[in-house]
Amino acid sequence: PTLVGQLIFVFIFKLLIKQIDGEDVIYESGAICLALAERFPEKNLAPPVTNTKARSQYYMWIVYATATIGS
């Protein structure tokens, strides 16, 4: 993607998260995923906190994806 395309993408995500969390602006992809999963638990975007094995795998893959994909 071009620089303009990347800036538009980031701007849209900032607006999305600002709408969801009010005044907070979150712009890191991993943070966006974690925030959305916490904000909307009924959507089952992440394993429940009571399932520690699945939750630790979820965290591992979020960190892995943000650290390796696109770099």
Structure description:
There is one protein chain. With 71 residues, this protein is mainly alpha-helical. The protein is built from three helices and no strands. Helix 2 packs antiparallel against helix 3. The mean pLDDT is 77.
Q: List the secondary-structure elements in sequence, H or E.
A: HHH
Strand percentage lies at: under 5%
Separation of termini? 13 Å
Number of helices: 3
Instruction: State the helical fraction.
Output: 55-70%
Are there runs of 5+ residues with pLDDT below 50, and where?
Answer: none
The biggest beta sheet is recorded as: none
Give average pLDDT, whole number: 77
Indicate the radius of gyration in whole angstroms: 14 Å
Class by SSE composition: mainly alpha
Estimate the global geometry from the Cα principal axes.
flat
Would you report the number of β strands? 0
